[in-house]
Amino acid sequence: MEEVEKWETQFKKGLIEALVMKAVIHQGKSYGYQLLVFLTEQGLEITEGTLYPLLNRMEKNGWLTSSWDMPENGGHPKRVYEPSPSSRENLKLIFARIDHYVGVYNNLRSL
């Protein structure tokens, strides 16, 4: 069972990046917490401890951008994430590759 859990962790790493990028594109400008709620509503179990480092890494890789939202009422500033200019094209290519591997999986599973 431990081997399956290790495999699942590796499998989810790349897939979660694609799903988070899709969420950012779908939601537009969003706070991290808004993305967390949206992804949870879609059935993706993800924690803040996974999401925020992932968002930072995705920004460093140029997959999305962020800026600080400074509330007028003096509240805490919040980071707002949005798609980078290349996000949509990158996601299109990633989803095409995912679709390819899903096809291979379905072919092999049916043997």
Which sequence of SSEs, written as H and E, runs from N to C? HEHHEEH
Work out the helix count: 4
Structural class: alpha+beta
Output mean pLDDT.
Answer: 93
Please count the beta strands (DSSP E, at least 2 residues each): 3
How can the largest sheet be summarized?
3 strands, antiparallel
Strand content: 5-15%
Rg, rounded, reads 16 Å
Portion in helices: 55-70%
Widest sheet, order of strands: 1-3-2
Low-pLDDT residue spans: none
Shape: globular
Q: Report the span from N to C terminus.
A: 24 Å
Description of the molecule:
Helix 1 packs antiparallel against helix 4 (87-109). By secondary structure, this protein is an alpha+beta fold. It has a three-stranded antiparallel β-sheet with strand order 1-3-2. The protein has helices spanning 2-27, 32-41, 48-60, 87-109, and strands at residues 30-31, 64-69, 78-83. The protein starts with a helix and ends with a helix. The protein is globular, with a radius of gyration of 16 Å.
List keywords for this structure.
65% helix; 4 helices; 111 residues; alpha+beta
Chain-wise SSE layout:
Layout: H1 2-27, E1 30-31, H2 32-41, H3 48-60, E2 64-69, E3 78-83, H4 87-109
Antiparallel strand pairs: 1-3, 2-3
In short:
The protein has 111 residues and is α+β, with helices and mostly antiparallel strands. The protein has helices at 2-27, 32-41, 48-60, 87-109, and strands at residues 30-31, 64-69, 78-83. A hairpin with an 8-residue loop joins strand 2 (64-69) and strand 3 (78-83).
